[in-house]
Design brief:
alpha+beta
């Protein structure tokens, strides 16, 4: 059977997973209507793809392997690896938004690898869609990114992903995605070549099974890969021997165990516990290893600590340093964008408790890990995220991002002013139908904690997306908007009478009846100075009645802390306490005396 290997790439929320689901529904890959490629609970809740996934369909006697990739920039390293294992990409672009930062990132990588994309202009049924304009913008982007003549002469398909329809030309009639599948068979080169050569395959993704341990997703480039056969594993650290114990191919969203797989296929294999991304599997020691796959470096770091607050251990099932360490080690098996420094005794020299330093690709990358851990029953606390600063030839460098924002014209002034204060440099600005698209170059440090402010400044009407562009010279001091903290100076239950007075000073994180402890941050102060408060103070009751003493108390809605919001608003002297049921902000030093002592010493 002939094989075609493709990946679907796009900016976040441009419709990759919906299109993949419909391709499978129409070709026998999905039997159950309720099942989707986004199978993880967090993916379903957030409506985004976090982990790249493999599937396959059979169309006109040809097997088409499809890799659905994440669209968010924090998971961009997954996309880069996938592109090395396939022969063409479907570049999905929203018919309203046009090319966005992640579109540029994934297209650039595709063109560099010599792939010829098929462009799918999706969501053409939207009232504001403009496929002709978007087609011109995509063509301009191809030339801007250095596409050769053959690549720039790309094929275009128009689609309504949520209805499972594709059109060769605008105005055509269609009931399914067959125009797109026909184009894939016509334009994507067959993958099943070199079937008679010596076996070689390359790992481009990792998986984990509780029974089989670490697993590898690999593309077979030549020969036949057989289960139970010994293989040589070639990587940057030399050559070693291993044995494949289980071999699977993808059929729809399920995996099917096989004894052997042919050249060109994408397989899942088990039995090599130390297998890693980019390593080459071969049957003969003389086979040349395939070019190494590089993985993007992390841009942020933060400390994971055992929760030592007064509420420690009340809600979590796994609370010890050893359990957190084992969970992080398990995460490293598959999450290759993550790095962890496990040096355990960093806290003994007056640095507070011991901790594990975790390095990630961005705030969302770290927040997803924390969310998964809390759902599994873990309880911990983390420090404020910090950008990784590197020394290059005696110069300090830091990560920069390309930031693209779409905002109503009336909000653009305040947004430009705020981003300017955070060392953002405006590169381009285009206005269309009252919406300004502004492109900035900004240090990652400048973006930390800005998303919440951006939503307020644009009244929720702005769209903001970014991608890491690399390390550049250190931008100097950045004055982020610092919130002062309302810190509880007592333990007990918060009461409405006290909260009604405190809400006039800032925004509250707790409501009436919430349990608080000394040193817990119960809200923020807009003026920027820390304030010790007593949220448990009740009304003094007497038997005297006076006018004005019995008016109704009205509390504003509480600013509920999620993990992402907490990471955004926390200050340098705070910890974010994450448990299965709660997310709380607290001071590193719980009593006011300890805080004063610490600041006096520093």
């Amino acid at each position: 059977m002939e094989i075609r290997n493709i990946a679907i790439i796009a900016h976040v929320d441009h419709g990759k997973t919906t299109l993949t689901d419909w391709l499978m529904k129409q070709n026998g890959g999905l039997q159950d209507e309720g099942i989707s490629m986004d199978s993880n609970d967090l993916e379903k809740e957030r409506g985004i793809t976090i982990y790249s996934k493999n599937t396959s369909i059979t169309y006109k006697g040809t097997k088409i392997n499809i890799v659905d990739t994440p669209g968010h920039a924090d998971f961009g390293s997954e996309v880069e690896r996938v592109l090395r294992a396939i022969d063409s990409v479907l570049l999905l672009v929203d018919a309203v938004e046009g090319p966005m930062p992640q579109t540029r990132f994934v297209l650039k990588k595709s063109l560099e690898l010599g792939l010829k994309p098929i462009v799918v202009i999706n969501k053409i049924d939207k009232p504001a869609s403009d496929p002709h304009r978007v087609h011109e913008e995509i063509l301009d982007l191809f030339f801007e990114l250095g596409a050769n003549e053959e690549q720039a002469n790309f094929e275009t398909i128009y689609a309504i992903g949520r209805e499972g329809k594709a059109f060769k030309h605008l105005g055509d009639k269609s009931e399914d995605l067959s125009p797109l599948l026909d184009l894939i068979l016509e334009k994507v080169p067959p993958a099943s070549k070199n079937g008679d050569g010596l076996m070689s395959a390359q790992v481009f993704n990792l998986g984990y099974d509780n029974f089989l341990g670490r697993m590898a997703v690999a593309r077979i480039y030549s020969g036949v890969l057989k289960a139970s056969n010994p293989v040589f594993i070639k990587g940057e650290n030399g050559t070693r021997k291993g044995k494949i114990t289980k071999l699977f191919v993808f059929e729809g969203i399920t995996r099917k165990e096989v004894e052997s797989a042919d050249s060109g296929d994408i397989v899942l294999l088990a039995g090599i516990p130390d297998i890693y991304i980019g390593e080459t599997l071969c049957e003969n020691e003389n086979v040349e290893p395939l070019p190494h796959i590089a993985i993007d470096e992390p841009t942020l770091s933060l400390n994971f600590l055992v929760n030592d607050s007064p509420f420690a251990g009340k809600e979590g099932k796994y609370v010890t340093s050893r359990q957190i360490k084992e969970r992080l080690e398990k995460e490293l098996e598959i999450n290759v964008g993550l790095k962890v420094d496990f040096t355990p005794d960093q806290g003994e020299k007056n640095m507070g408790p011991s901790f594990f330093k975790v390095y990630g690709r961005g705030e969302l990358h770290i927040a997803i890990l924390l969310e998964n851990m809390r759902r599994e029953g873990f309880e911990m606390q983390v420090s404020q995220p910090e950008v990784i600063i590197k020394e290059v030839d005696g110069h300090k460098t830091e990560p920069y991002e390309e930031l693209v924002i779409d905002v109503p014209m009336e909000s653009s002034g305040s947004v430009i002013e705020k981003i300017g204060k955070r060392r953002g440099i405006m590169k381009d600005m285009v206005e269309k139908e009252g919406i300004a698209r502004i492109i900035f170059d900004i240090p990652t440090r400048g973006l930390l904690g800005y998303r919440g402010e951006f939503i307020i400044d644009t009244k929720g009407e702005g769209i903001m997306s970014s991608r890491v562009t690399g390390f550049k010279d250190y931008a100097g001091e950045i004055k982020r908007r610092e919130y002062g903290s309302m810190t509880s100076m007592v333990s007990g239950k918060a009461v409405a009478f006290s909260l009604a007075n405190l809400q006039e000073r800032g925004i509250l994180y707790v409501g009436h009846g919430a349990e608080v402890y000394e040193g817990m941050v119960v809200g923020n102060v807009l003026k920027g100075d820390d304030m010790a408060v007593n949220p448990t103070k009740g009304k003094q009751l007497t038997n005297m009645r006076a006018s004005g003493t019995d008016e109704a108390i009205t509390l504003n809605p509480v600013f509920t802390l999620s993990i992402e919001r907490g990471l955004e608003v926390m200050n340098e002297d705070d910890y974010l306490e994450v448990t299965p049921k709660s997310v709380r902000l607290r001071k590193k030093y719980l009593t006011e005396l300890d805080r004063k002592k610490h600041f006096a010493q520093s």
